[in-house]
Amino acid sequence: MQEGDEERYEMNNDLEKFSEERLMEIQKKLSAGVLIDTTEASLVRDAIEIAVAANGSNYDITVYQLRDYLHYDPVTGIFTRRSDGLQIGSKNDEGYLYITCFGHVRPAHRMAYYYMTGRLPKTVDHIDRVKTNNEWKNLREATNAENQWNKAMKRNNTSGVKGVYWSKKDNRWIAEIRLNGARHYVGSYRDMEDAKLAISEKRKVLHGAFFVEDGQVAAPKPESE
Predict the structure, then answer these.
(1) In this model, does residue 10 exceed pLDDT 60?
(2) Fewer CB within 10 Å, N side or C side of the chain?
(3) pLDDT band at 196 (very low <50, low <70, confident <90, very high)
(4) Domain with 35 in it: what CATH number?
(5) Is the distance from CB of 123 to CB of 147 less than 8 angstroms?
(6) Does the keyword Hydrolase apply (predicted)?
(7) Are residues 82 and 34 part of one domain?
């Protein structure tokens, strides 16, 4: 087995579950009205996600084609062409790295996740919020909401603390969090520091691993300003 083949073999172990024979077994069960277990249901869901994503203009290639054409280094997050070993990738206007292969410009962080797992989640999040850091340890699957949680507060915030605003009626600072369309009232406070602490603790519970400590206060202005 050559080095490239060994690498693909190691990363494709998880894709063996998507064999045609395995999926056909599940299809027969469903056609016969037989209930499938949670593992099989998850398998069907993942297979559908990959199939749907593969129909998009950005994902019209299989993971095998991607791995044959490019090499991704999970330690550095860098893509190189297998044909000549040259590094590829350039930043777009939003600061994300993009790579060009098979006639399309593709987001590098999503291609890295595809390369490593064979899956195409709706959103791939940069844990450290550095858009150019595509190291494997820095990438994780996320929902759109979770991706938004892992961001610094917008600079147009007037209170300086995310989710906190001044109520003239109550003459207090009001703290609340919006989550999945629902409003979570935290409390009202005379002191801003109390409001800041309370909403931070509540957000830790609601956001879990996507909680960002330094995302609760105003982002610093760039030095150029």
Answers:
(1) no
(2) C
(3) confident
(4) 3.90.75.20
(5) yes
(6) yes
(7) yes
Instruction: Answer for the pair 52, 59: CB distance below 8 angstroms, yes or no.
Output: no
What's the one-letter identity of residue 101? C
Environment class of 196 (CB within 10 Å of its CB; exposed 0-12, middle 13-18, buried 19+) = buried
DSSP assignment of the chain? --HHHHHHHHHHGGGGGG-HHHHHHHHHHHHTTPPP-HHHHHHHHHHHHHHHHHTSGGG-S-HHHHHHHEEEETTTTEEEETTT--EE-EE-TTS-EEEEETTEEEEHHHHHHHHHHS---SEEEETT--TT---GGGEEEE-HHHHHHTSPBPTT-SSSBTTEEEETTTTEEEEEEEETTEEEEEEEESSHHHHHHHHHHHHHHHHGGG--GGGSBBPPPPTT-
Where does a domain end: 96, 122, 142?
Answer: 142
| Statement to judge: residues 100 and 122 lie in one domain | yes
Q: Is residue 8's pLDDT more than 50?
A: no
Token code pair at residue 103: 């006639």
Under 8 Å between Cβ of 108 and 79:
yes
Q: For residue 31, tell me if it sits in a domain.
A: yes
Question: Is the pLDDT higher at 133 or at 47?
Answer: 133
- Cβ(106)–Cβ(54) below 8 Å: no
Is 197 in contact with 114 (CB distance < 8 Å)?
A: no
User: In sequence order, what are the beta bridge partners of 79?
Assistant: 72, 88
